[in-house]
Structures are given as structure tokens and as C-alpha cells.
Specification:
GO cellular component, one term: cortical microtubule
Keywords: Coiled coil
Number of domains: 1
InterPro entries: CHUP1/IPGA1-like
Strand content: under 5%
Helix content: over 70%
Shape: elongated
């Protein structure tokens, strides 16, 4: 069965929401300095994972936002 119509739009909108959410979290982490509270980061990654599972993957822009969150996990914010 093809994902068309309402289901396809729902998946596309979910990916767009995940992208915006991850960008917002990245901005908050960047403005707060070193990552002191991992709860926000973990919440963002969990939400992104759930959307990824629901939608069947990310588009290129959402992958870039996810990579930015991953960079916070490994190195902290860029300054």
C-alpha cells in the first residue's frame, strides 16, 4: 500500500515538526553554554527517533538538524 493522501501528509508534517523541534533544542543548548542538563537533549533525541520510526526516515534538512544535536552530545556547542 502506498503512503499517499492524508497519511503521507501526516508523515511529512511529522518530519517537519521534528526538524523544528531539534533546531529549537540546538539553539537552547547553544545559548546555555556547556550541556549541564542532559534531559532536554535526551528528550529531543527520543522525539526525533519516534518520528523517524513513524515516518520511515528523515529528509536531508532533518538529518542536518539531527547531526547538530549529535554534535552537542560529543563536543558541546560551537563557539
Amino acid at each position: 500500500m502506498l503512503d499517499t493522501g492524508v497519511i503521507g501528509q501526516l508523515k511529512f508534517s511529522s518530519v517537519a515538526l521534528a526538524r523544528q523541534y531539534m533546531k529549537r533544542i540546538a539553539k537552547e543548548l547553544e545559548s546555555s553554554g556547556p550541556v549541564q542538563d542532559d534531559d532536554l537533549l535526551i528528550q529531543g533525541v527520543r522525539f526525533a527517533y519516534r518520528v523517524h520510526q513513524f515516518a520511515g526516515g528523515f529528509d536531508a534538512d532533518t538529518l542536518l538538524a539531527f547531526e547538530e544535536l549529535r554534535r552537542f552530545c560529543t563536543t558541546g556547542p560551537t563557539q
